[in-house]
Specification:
single chain; 6-stranded antiparallel beta sheet; rod-shaped
Length: 204
């Protein structure tokens, strides 16, 4: 009789243990499911962030401009001389031909990078003077990147010169054409002879 009671107690204990194990397993499965859901949410959040990054990359800024220098003081044949000045002076190319993205300001003559990227700039200078130093410089912020210059002899009154540069710019960097101290250039009110152009190759 005692043995039967003992056996019944053992079976009861086994049942209780089994039930407990089932509860533990169920709780463990629920915990694992919760963890999996959290991992899925993290993955979805990461995926969403990546999608947003791709969207931003796809929304590439479109930047391109060309502007021409126009003289304020005109002499014969619509030509005007700019300079010389006692200090470096930004040349304000006021006649805008193209300004996609409005990154170039014709009032100041300054291009401001709207985003970090690789940009290409080119400029052409024109001169119609004798016995003078002619040319211009391309600047990034306060740094001279390129310089065109020549001593214009007597009898060699008209000349053109061009130069170009590919620059990595941070957002807010500025690029402009400067007339060095003592230099002269010329421009026309009739034709676009002295020009400044640039465009973004790609964003970084």
């Amino acid at each position: 009789m005692v043995t039967k009671i003992t056996m019944m107690k053992m079976k009861l204990v086994m049942v209780v243990l089994a039930a407990h194990l089932l509860n533990v397993n169920a709780a463990t499965q629920q915990q694992q499911q919760r963890q999996q859901k959290l991992q899925d949410l993290d993955y979805i959040g990461d995926l969403y962030s990546r999608i947003e990054e791709v969207k931003k990359m796809c929304q590439v800024k479109k930047v391109a401009f060309t502007a021409a220098l126009v003289p304020s003081d005109v002499k014969g044949e619509g030509i005007g001389i700019i300079g010389p000045f006692s200090s470096n002076t930004i040349l304000r190319h006021r006649r805008v031909i193209t300004n996609i993205g409005n990154a170039y300001n014709p009032q100041t003559g300054v291009f401001t990078a709207p985003v970090k990227g690789v940009y290409f700039f080119t400029f052409t200078t024109y001169s119609w003077v004798a016995k003078a130093t002619i040319g211009a410089s391309l600047y990034r912020n306060n740094e001279e990147v390129l310089l065109i210059w020549e001593w214009q002899d007597a009898g060699d009154n008209e000349d053109y010169a061009s130069n170009s540069a590919t620059l990595v710019l941070m957002q807010g960097d500025i690029v402009y054409i400067s007339l060095p101290k003592g230099f002269q250039v010329a421009a026309s009110i009739l034709s676009n002879m002295h020009t400044f152009s640039g465009f973004m190759l790609y964003q970084l």
